[in-house]
Amino acid sequence: MVFDATMTMTRMDEITAAAEVWHVDADETQAMLIDGVYGAAEALGFSRDGLVLHAGQGLAGAVLARRVPVLLRELDREAFEGSEAAAASGVVAAIGIPVFDEEKLTAVLVVMFRGNPGMVGGVELWVGRRGRVELGLTEAYYAGLERFGKISKYVNFPIGSGLPGMAWAIGAPRLITGLGKSQAFLRSSGAESAGLVTGFGVPIVHRNELLAVMLWLSSRATPLARWHQVWESSDGRVESLRCVAADGVGSGEVKSEKLKVKSREGVGSGGAELQAAITAAVREAGQRRMPVVFDDVSAQGLEGVGLGEVKSEKLKVKSVEGEQGNWGGAKPQAAGWGGRGGRVLGGFALPVLRHDGVRAVGVMAW
Q1: Is the distance from CB of 38 to CB of 91 less than 8 angstroms?
Q2: pLDDT above 50: residue 76
Q3: Does an H or E element contain 186, and which?
């Protein structure tokens, strides 16, 4: 685990506070914390170093016992280990995400969230209903999204419909920017009213069967993540993973075949450092078949969402609004890196596995 003593308290205004990787033993009876990124919440990281939880104990243990994603909208001693340290760091909610390799539950990714006044964003958990022909909202953590949350309780998504249904249909993460203008996001009017601009849908799969779809909803002012990427493999091999959707590039250009950031209009070595970190995390997540976290890398030159172009085998998008991987939904300053010293506080790469390899990897960085 890496802690940066130079981080200032001003960085406590990020909704996403921390991410952890828990390794599950072969008998699936306990989970051990093996890595974590905590940004400004370094005291929280020190308090949790080396934790081991048994099935049913704490958040990772609850995921281990139930074998489904677990979302805690409130943290207490019984449900969340180290709740006092979490509260001292402003953490108010957390989600535990299981990662399956065939039948085996091999890892749990835990992500923690703050809920300071003025924050706007949310995490939703959608699961199958009515014989698994549609998805319904079962749990959610909302910061400043009370009205949006009330509407969402009455919405269902058939396969292929809306962001949850699309992630379900393709079996891979799905990214939509410009939520308020997007025809693909069926709650666009509510998103626009609430100030939401980016949606990231990630399926949780067990033996090629969908368990749930997680939605990460970010606003302009306080995004859960300032950088998202979707990588897919056409044949299950790690070597075949290609970036097919991304945001946060700013005015640079990413070429996914080699994933090198070209030095154009201010994107230089800093942007290349972040992309190199993401690339390494994606490859490692695919090879190890479990989540990988990273932190404290430079994002200089990546001054927000808005002017970039991604080129890949599947995707060639310039600045148009509303669909996967474009930059039109948010202005360049909307998800900028101001006040952070041009550095990324943390991020994770979460693989979606299948029996013959890796289907996809979703990346978030904040």
Answers
A1: no
A2: yes
A3: none
For residue 85, the SS3 value is helix
Range of the domain at 110: 9-115
> Residue 94: which residues within 8 A CB-CB, separation 6 or more?
59, 71, 72, 75, 80, 86, 110, 111, 112, 113
216 and 261 fall within a common domain:
no
Alpha-carbon span 101 to 73, nearest angstrom:
28
- Residues 178-195: what's their mean pLDDT? 94
208: pLDDT confidence band, cut at 50, 70 and 90? Answer: confident
pLDDT (mean) for 142-150? 95
| pLDDT tens readout for residues 256-311 | 333 333 333 333 344 788 899 999 999 999 999 999 999 988 776 544 333 233 33
- pLDDT confidence of 13, banded at 50, 70, 90? low
Q: Per the structure, how many domains does the chain have?
A: 3
**Same-domain pairing of 107 and 21:** yes
Q: Are 29 and 55 contacting, i.e. CB atoms less than 8 angstroms apart?
A: yes
The residue from 94, 115, 136 where one domain ends is: 115
Tokens (6 digits) for 195: 């100030």
Which of 165, 191, 224 corresponds to the end of one domain?
A: 224
Model-level pTM?
0.83
Specify the 3-state DSSP secondary structure of 254.
Answer: strand
Q: Which amino acid belongs to residue 175?
A: L
Strand 70-72 to 91-101 pairing: antiparallel
- For 257, the token pair is 């075949």
pLDDT for 144 equals 94
pLDDT value at residue 154: 92
Are both 19 and 62 inside the same structural domain? yes
Q: How wide is the angle at C-alpha 220 spanned by C-alphas 18 and 203, nearest 5°?
A: 55
Give the H or E element holding residue 245. strand 242-246
Tell me the one-letter amino acid at 343.
R
- The secondary structure element, H or E, covering residue 274 is helix 269-288
Query: What average pLDDT score do residues 161-171 get?
Result: 95
Using DSSP's 3-state secondary structure scheme, residue 354 falls into strand
Q: Computed over its alpha carbons, how large is the radius of gyration of the chain?
A: 19
